[in-house]
Amino acid sequence: MSHLVGDASEEHARPEALVAIKRRHPWRMLAAIIIVVLAALFIYDSAFNRPVYNWPEVGKYLFDQRIITAIGYTLQLTVYSMVIAIVLGVLLAVMRQSPNPVVKAVSWVYLWVFRGTPVYVQLTFWGLITVVYKTITIGIPFTEAFVTLTTKDFLSYFTLAVIGLALNEAAYMAEIVRAGLLAVDKGQDEAATALGLGWWHTMTRVVLPQAMRVIIPPTGNEVISMLKTTSLVAAVPFIGELFTRSRDIAGVTYQPVPMLIVASVWYLVVTSILMVGQYYLERHFAKGVEARTDVQKPTVETQSIGVVGELPEADGPAGAGLGGGR
User: Fold this and answer.
1) Which contacts qualify for 266-275: CB closer than 8 Å, 24 or more apart?
2) pLDDT in tens, 69-84
3) How confident is the model at residue 308 (pLDDT cuts 50, 70, 90)?
4) Secondary structure string (H, E, C) spanning the chain
5) Beta bridge partners of 137
6) Which residue from 110, 189, 204, 231 has the least number of CB within 10 angstroms?
């Protein structure tokens, strides 16, 4: 009888299997079909109905030696400018957090000037720097100069382009780094102070390493933006980068649209590579943040575990006692 009651209770307690019905989204499917059809029509129209694109001309100059050399200059401008901008941006952000009011004011004025004026205007100014400052003298003020240097001798247009891009980007990197520093809990400063660390060591060894998780994503975006901003260095004027070189070729062939496509293809290729690198870099600095340990599960069902030393049931009230006597 007890077995029948037990079987009935188990069947009653066992829940029925749920049948999940997937929700349908007809409008979403319709929108996807329309987008795919429009994209296919655009690709077909561009390939067969627009002779101005001149795809044979695109293929002719896609791997042209002048274009490949220009890509090299573009990458050099991007790398050199970003390295200088990151170092200077970190320094400016740390200066903004400094308790020294003079240091903080210098950093604020720098950001105010370089963020408040267009980058094209700044590059044009740097192109005229050899006219404004024809010579640079080194010596004691109000005495005869020790050394006099002619700016044209050691400042090429490439160098001026790197300086202009780096100084402008440093202002934006400073705000990115400062946002990362502010994202670190204030208790980290207090803990470092309790350990006897000074302000500089606290900032460089405690706060800044933790802020990297916040700094890396926007920095990757700035690198990609810098790659495209190099197209403005013609204001210096430096004419060796990708966009200016493709425009010069178009001025000879009278085919501006194919050369624009060539430049766009290479910009997309390099940008895609940078995006992949940014993804892995973000994942590296995000270690330990998104990871969650799995909930520990029992190795056996709890219902099958019995009590150690459990005595068999005995008839009558005497069997209900604990231990039942020996």
Assistant:
1) 266/62, 266/67, 266/71, 266/242, 267/227, 267/228, 267/242, 270/71, 270/74, 270/75, 270/227, 271/224, 271/227, 271/228, 274/220, 274/223, 274/224, 274/227, 275/220, 275/224
2) 999 999 999 999 999 9
3) low
4) CHHHHHHHHHHHHCCCCCCCCCCCCHHHHHHHHHHHHHHHHHHHHHHHCCHHHCHHHHHHHCCCHHHHHHHHHHHHHHHHHHHHHHHHHHHHHHHHCCCCHHHHHHHHHHHHHHHHCCHHHHHHHHHCHHHHCCEEEECCCCCCCCEEEEHHHHCCHHHHHHHHHHHHHHHHHHHHHHHHHHHCCHHHHHHHHHCCCCHHHHHHHHHHHHHHHHHHHHHHHHHHHHHHHHHHHHHCCCCCCHHHHHHHHHHHHCCHHHHHHHHHHHHHHHHHHHHHHHHHHHHHHCCCCCCCCCCCCCCCCHHHCCCCCCCCCCCCHHHHCCCCCC
5) 148
6) 204
